[in-house]
Tyrosine kinase G-rich domain-containing protein (Dissulfurispira thermophila), 103 residues
Amino acid sequence: MIKGSDELTRTYKKLLESGRLILVGFNPIELEKRSSDLKIERLTIEQALNRLKGIEMIDKPYILKNPVKPRIKMNIALAGITSLFAGIFLAFLMEYVEKMRER
């Protein structure tokens, strides 16, 4: 398609120069811009395909029968224990900083 649009552009330019073609809503600059956009898009797609060539699907994806839910009780317990350890660490750190200032 892109090669054809390049040839079409050249053909239209020749016909315009010879006077055998009358312009009716045709803009060769827009055609050239669209042609270059298509070339860039084609290259992008080719690069994406080259990146996917070494990939293969091992197993088919599956959907669980029971939906996964957050474990609220465990999350709250974990947050409490983490906060407790962080508080103890912060208390020791503050005490250490105070002792270092006194020296």
